[in-house]
Amino acid sequence: MTPSLLHRILDHANRADPYPLYEELRRTPVHHEDDGPYVISTYYEIRGLLHDPRISSDTRTPASHTADPLPEAPQGEGALPPGFLKLDPPEHDRLRRMTNRPFGPPHSPRRIDGMRPELHDIVTGLIDGIGDPGRIDLVEQFSYPFPVTVICRLLGVPREDEARFHVWADTLAASLDPDPDADPGERGKDAHDARMQLGMYLAGLIEERRRNPGEDMLSQLATAEGEDGPMTTMELLSTAALLLIAGHETTVNLITNGMLTLLRNPDVLRRLRAEPRLAVPVVEELLRFEPPVQLLPQRVTLADIDVRGVTVPKGSGLWLVLASGNRDPERFADPDRFDPDRPDIQHLGLGSGIHSCFGAPLARLEAQFALSELARRLENPRLLQDPPPYRQNAVLRGPRQLHIGCDGIRP
What residue intervals traverse the membrane (predicted)? Predict the structure, then answer.
């Protein structure tokens, strides 16, 4: 039996290059298989639905009995409630507003920009410590430790505890994807257990910050008394868990996909080395060309919705394939070409609408620092394996390792 298009997209064997499958998917902009989700793959339709209040992100929304290939892990008693990423207004708006107070404008306008010297120092230290330039695993030696160090400092999480939350983060990220060989009940239990352990760990940190607050975001969230009042303990735990995991998972992929793309486009890499300011459009084009979040699953329609002449019934599961929309030729000329000189890169790489990426300013800045410094300091870099091995994850798509070599490391 020939596997369906959706299952081929999810198949790890196609992870290195899913874009031909997305091209096939776009031939039917509203793709629906049997009793599965409705899959939307074209730019304008995805953008419209991201702004449509009739689409719910709340994982507790009663949906149809859709056979979703990416089942939501059960919450269960004692588990953390959903973070604001998986909530609808007004709860979403209140929690996101409260979380933004210590993170960005208007209350903390210099929080991210003020981290520039620190970001530079972290990047410099990691590149200085690479060791043998002839064989570098960019993920292990740079792309992973950089954003993890940054989010730990921003939140006030001890960097030495990274080994503990790395395991929980991996388990929760893996719960987004199907594993044909795994028992669904066991995977749900693993995700539930990981959320509980992460919650207990963060509860200890938060209690400590309430007693001895510092300048970090956890302290400010734990002691905040703004116009919305304080967060409940469970809301605070869910928000902290969301920031800790989302604050590094996607940026690891953005940096790794970015270096892989630059090594495949040596002319752009040479330009970036000579023109560090090019990092800004390079990162924007990367977010279009190789977005770290490929698709948004587990949305639910709250009403019948017409999409390109197809009625998506109320209560249907909905998938928005951002990476496909970013390569839609109806929106982008020559979409399979990596071109940082595009005059209009209004991509979907960080989402759009009320659920647009909360950490976008930080992710952009991290990627700009990382890629410009790697381009400047690595002498004659080259891929040692292409394509690299990819993580299992189809949603958070990125290489598990990226082995590169270079002739030396410039000061």
Answer: none
